[in-house]
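ugh ok so i messed up the first submission bc i forgot one of the chains. this is the corrected input, ALL of the components this time, i swear. 392 residues overall. if the numbers dont match what u have on ur side tell me asap before i send this to the collaborators (the ones from the other lab, u know who)
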Amino acid sequence: MSRRNEIPPRSGTAFRLNEGQTLIVTDPKGEQVADLLAFNAGDVREVISGGRSLDYASKLFLTTGDPLYSNRSNIMLDIISDDCGRHDFLLTPCSKDTFRIIYGDEDPHRGCFGNLAAALEPYGIEEDMIPTAFNVFMNVQVNGDTGELRVDPPLSKAGDSIALKARMDLIIGLTACSALQSNGGSFKPIEWEIVG
Amino acid sequence: MSRRNEIPPRSGTAFRLNEGQTLIVTDPKGEQVADLLAFNAGDVREVISGGRSLDYASKLFLTTGDPLYSNRSNIMLDIISDDCGRHDFLLTPCSKDTFRIIYGDEDPHRGCFGNLAAALEPYGIEEDMIPTAFNVFMNVQVNGDTGELRVDPPLSKAGDSIALKARMDLIIGLTACSALQSNGGSFKPIEWEIVG
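and heres the new structure output, hopefully the right one now
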């Protein structure tokens, strides 16, 4: 069973991904970011953890073959293929506060954070339970000497995909990112499908 | 009022820090890490956030003048002085799983994570609510090209301190780190005091 779904620009969704199934996230137009969250479907207090995943991998940039760990140090997802090779696991989903603090917007969009919170609310997941997301296709350049972080346009080309296989039953949150800086200056959709 | 407290090697503590008070964390012997957590004393679901702090600062290495934000994008602490200048906000507190996965220990120590969980439990803070800590004096070298992370001995010398001023009433968790790799190969105490 497979069905291609579209997340419209600046919006988000949530859905169940069962153990053994593979989630394919595709950037149909290129240079678009998708924030991805994962929660244990049986106990949503167990949640994806950038801190643990980066620590155990001893690297910032995760790709094919790398696992994504939970806050309980269990593997939630394995990256099994990756056309792009550059994603971010450092920065929080953009939010009203991101647009206020970084962009100076006076009437800010709710951002990926607001989109994720709304999509995940029916699953009993509250705003405070939303951690740093795995930011698919997000291209954060890091200067190892100064520590400077710079958000550049994604390296993803039209049609690039990443595939992640679930190692437990999950609730997934996924967005088409709402931050201009992350997406090379324009808002585009994201596509996803479940295989298996 | 000021009183110098010692955290013995491989242990941790928790205490209240009121708005306007300053917490001074000192490395008495040099090359020792202290994992620091902060929770809103009035609602412990509001918690220190590396993802937000690094995002708003647009840099990895925070020091004097930089604020530490919560998951709700409120400033919890301001770094008001810093003798060392190098701390980490990427990696999770070391835990049984760290020692199992990274060090291959068969009967692993509970680590900073276990020490923090035990110290914070009386404040109603559960294990799953513990995020990535602000790792005072931890020296994580980052290769911006490859993304490789390498934990080097701290740059802190005996007597180096960092001072953090509370911007809200907080519950603080603080450790003398339990991971050999973080501390240049030996376990040492950490000292702290509250001023104001």
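quick check: The mean pLDDT of chain B is 95. that seems consistent at least. The CA atoms of residues 68 and 74 of chain B lie 8 Å apart.
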